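Moderator note: this is an archived Q&A kept for reference. The question asked for a predicted structure of one protein chain; the sequence and the answer are reproduced below.
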Amino acid sequence: MQALLDNLRALGWRRLSVLGGTGAMLLAALFFGLSFAVAPEYTPVYRDLSPGEASRVVESLEQAGFRVQTDSSGSMVSVPRDDIARARMELAGLGLPNDGTPGWELFDEQSGIGMNTFMQRVNRLRALEGELARSIQTIDGVDAARVHLVLPEREPFSRERPRPSASVIVRGRGSRSISTRQGQSIRALVAAAVPDLAPTMVTVLSASGETILGEEGEIGSEANLQTVRSGIEDRLRQRITEILTARVGAGNARVQVTVDLSSERQVLRQQSYDPAQRVVRSTETREETRDDSKAARGEVGVADDIPAALADGGGATNRNTSSMTNEIVNYEIGGSQSETVREPGEVEKVSVAVLVNGIYNVQPDGTVDYAERPADELQQLQALVQTAVGFDQQRGDNVSVVSLRFMDYSMDVGEPVTRSITQILADNLNNILRGLFALVLVAIVLFLGFRPALRQALAIQRPDDTEALPGASAATAALPATGAEGEEPGQAQQARPQLVGGTAQSMHHTGTILDPLPPGADDELVRIATVQGGVQRGWISTINELIEREPDDALKVVKGWLAEGA
């Protein structure tokens, strides 16, 4: 232990400070590098959680002893990859996550003590709404759902039972919208799960406030018109997309359909007559004959009042006879009468806008050129669209087909849409930092473990005091000017002072001075791998005698060499 302390003192405070700083930096780099290298890789357990549900999940996992991380939005909870299975099993045992909509488990947490009939009905309604919301969320494309049920009770002494109704609010996943077909599926699900609930009494709304399916009982209502309009638009959009996809390819056509519906009930009555269609309906004939006589002028008597059959013919008389025939013919004229009733919801106008992508041609050199679709092809596509929607020019329908380049176009023959370098670096920042720290750690270990590099980094230049040592001067002067056979004189002189001077200096520190070799000493050179040009055998013998005579001082010299890295 004392020898170690002596060696440390021999190094000096400058070398000790450099070694201490280097060791501290090495330990810090080793600590941070290992912390990044052995840091676990986190995997999401659940995504798109509400803040309240995410808080419950994090609290449960931390109480169970898991290391938990959340993203900046707080909607994703992650644990180390090795703990993902155990974490999900732990959450499943706790009934998490449930998205804040409890189901039939409400009755598991409550006992019958203190439970009245009203609370039981309320819990039953809540449980039924929660179970329906969970079932709706399993439909592809539905991100969240809320169900409201109205189950009225029959009033006392009432002959009619009130009809139940329901309303459902759904939100699509991402940018997807809920179609009419999905709305019909949701309506069928809710109607089948609630007793005595008719499908027409279920209203389905989107998160944006759009009525997907309304109550169909009220003809002409705004909700009913919105439902009919959405159904017609979806059906026409699907037809147009299918027929265009066969030509331009999947994803290369965008179709928008707008349908105007009538909102008023109209009754039209029309009556027409045809004079050419005349038929005798009835004929009435009347004949009238009149016969009368009068007395001659100037005679006064009762002869004028006697009928002609009873008169005796005496006297002069005036007789008048008249007849009249009257005929009435009634004709039936042919005609037609019609009555037209137009209910709300009839199509008044259809407008279609179609945007198709252009054509990408691969050139012989591998480049891709974009070209707009020709006008004759656009006319053919427009004719197909008009036929698909039942185009009626008198009704005012409008169909527009335009070819423009899509900004998000990507296919095998063209340049794919890739992420930028900044996005790639941001997504893999943790892995990059781990790799860099590992490389730095390996470089530091190699750098400090490589002996010449360490010596060059930590060596401090000292003044050459070889000439101040009398033993070294004498030893250096006693060396012959020539080296081994075939070597330059400077090579042997350059190599020997290193050994002799170092020995003389070390012996000087220990109180022993080497004397020059006597004349006629053995000047045979001994080949040593670490000494250029070799060493005279006489010096080796002298050092051996010195070691045998003063072993303690020789041991200190060797320790000094080891400490200096000689």
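Archived answer notes: The radius of gyration is 58 Å.
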